[in-house]
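Postdoc handover notes: sequence design on the structure in folder B. Input tokens:
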């Protein structure tokens, strides 16, 4: 065995593996520490950038797309109502900051006012509360009015107009009623049906001969009157025997034809 070969063998046997492991561990630890420092710096930089932009309102909902969706869903809304409703939806869906939602709430209410007044030809200058009270006397609107009353929609509208600010959650109540619970669609359907019934109104020039008891129709008590030409009249007015001129609406009730006046 040569001297050189012996030196190599001796060096191998004298090699301390633990010392090697410690050196590698120290080197790796130093490398990881440098990487951690770099990552911490990047994280701080990202946090600073996030603070700059976290309150910026990103408009995720396009006005035109919302308008198209609302037009497709509520095809009988007037152009003015569509614009008002789209404006309310655009602001409600896009705004994330802590703000006063009263103006947005008023937009949803305004749509109801516009549609009810336009479809029923109501020209009176009524408050929203006065308008709801007026249609509350019409049988078809009873459930709708009850829903608004139960959820204190009129009181909240008055708050939004006169007294205080509204939170987004409070504004969301009227939106839930109109969209999620489907009351805007139901209201438009009621208004459309009433308009169709109105188109069936006829001019009357009749002679009332007698009465024939009473009928309970749409939650109201009516007197049944018989005319000279044998037509049956439903009336909740004080009708006198003799000639009568006015307007009436042809209806079918309990398999009989009537004229409602």
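Designed sequence:
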């Amino acid at each position: 065995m040569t001297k050189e070969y012996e030196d190599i063998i001796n060096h191998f046997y004298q090699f301390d593996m633990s010392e090697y492991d410690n050196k590698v561990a120290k080197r790796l630890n130093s490398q990881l520490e440098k990487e951690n420092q770099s990552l911490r710096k990047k994280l701080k930089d990202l946090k600073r950038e996030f603070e700059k932009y976290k309150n910026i309102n990103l408009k995720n909902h396009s006005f035109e797309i919302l308008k198209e969706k609302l037009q497709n869903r509520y095809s009988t809304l007037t152009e003015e109502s569509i614009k008002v409703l789209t404006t309310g939806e655009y602001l409600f869906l896009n705004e994330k900051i802590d703000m006063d939602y009263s103006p947005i709430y008023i937009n949803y209410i305004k749509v109801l006012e516009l549609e009810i007044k336009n479809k029923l030809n109501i020209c009176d200058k009524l408050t929203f509360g006065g308008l709801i009270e007026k249609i509350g006397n019409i049988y078809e609107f009873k459930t709708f009015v009850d829903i608004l009353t139960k959820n204190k929609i009129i009181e909240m509208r008055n708050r939004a107009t006169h007294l205080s600010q509204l939170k987004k959650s409070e504004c969301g109540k009227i939106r839930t009623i109109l969209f999620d619970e489907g009351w805007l669609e139901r209201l438009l359907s009621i208004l459309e049906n009433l308009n169709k019934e109105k188109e069936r109104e006829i001019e009357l020039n009749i002679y009332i001969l007698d009465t024939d008891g009473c009928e309970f129709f749409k939650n109201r008590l009516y007197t049944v009157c018989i005319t000279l030409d044998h037509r049956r009249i439903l009336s909740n007015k004080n009708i006198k025997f003799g000639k009568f001129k006015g307007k009436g609406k042809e209806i079918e009730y309990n398999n009989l034809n009537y004229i409602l006046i």
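Context for whoever picks this up: The first helix runs from residue 3 to 14. Don't rerun without checking with the PI first.
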